[in-house]
Amino acid sequence: MFVRFLRTGSISILVSLCLVALLAVIIQVSSPAPAKADDTPKSKVAALRGYDVSIFAQGTSVYFNPDSIDVAGNSAYVDYQNITAKDDRDNKTSTIVQYTNSGQVVHYIFHSRP
After folding, report:
1. Residues 6+ apart with CB under 8 A from 45
2. pLDDT number for residue 89
3. Does residue 94 sit in helix, strand or coil?
4. What is the DSSP letter of 101?
5. Which SS3 state, helix, strand or coil, does residue 28 take?
6. Assuming Cys at both sites, which of 20, 57, 78, 95 could form a disulfide with 63, CB separation 3.0 to 4.6 Å?
7. How many Å apart are CA 58 and CA 92, to the nearest integer?
8. Mean pLDDT in runs of 10 for the chain (114 residues)?
């Protein structure tokens, strides 16, 4: 039976199939494992060695779309644009929020540019 198999030229097909299978195994072994849910990065913000990046404070449904941030003394001030036009043609207000160093809201005011 083996002689008959050789006579028909099917051995080259068998060798080709073995090579394809070997190549598939090599590719599978060398490809990285898929990321697990807990392996995904928590933040896309990079930090220098020795520093951590975390959320300091978040907007709310009243104030959102943070713009400028300033720190003075023991407070941080965040200007939230909300949904205002850059040139103030819409007469809507932005919101300035004062935070403590730990991210707690001290107070906020609605602000419109003159």
Report:
1. 53
2. 79
3. strand
4. T
5. helix
6. 95
7. 21
8. 51 57 59 50 76 87 90 92 80 89 88 64
Q: How many residues would you count in the chain?
A: 114
pLDDT for res 43: 57
- The three-state secondary structure class of 38 is helix
Rg (alpha carbons) of the chain, rounded to whole number: 31
Strand pairing class (94-99; 105-111): antiparallel
Residue 110 neighbours by CB under 8 Å, 6+ apart: 93, 94, 95
Strand partners, 28: none
pLDDT (0 to 100) of residue 1? 45
Strands (E), 1-114: 66-72, 75-80, 94-99, 105-111
pLDDT of residue 47: 87
Q: What is the pLDDT of residue 100?
A: 93
Helix (H) or strand (E) holding 17: helix 10-30
Give exposure, 63-97, as e/b (b: 16+ Cβ within 10 Å): beeeeeeeeeeeebebbbbbebeeeeeeeebbbbb
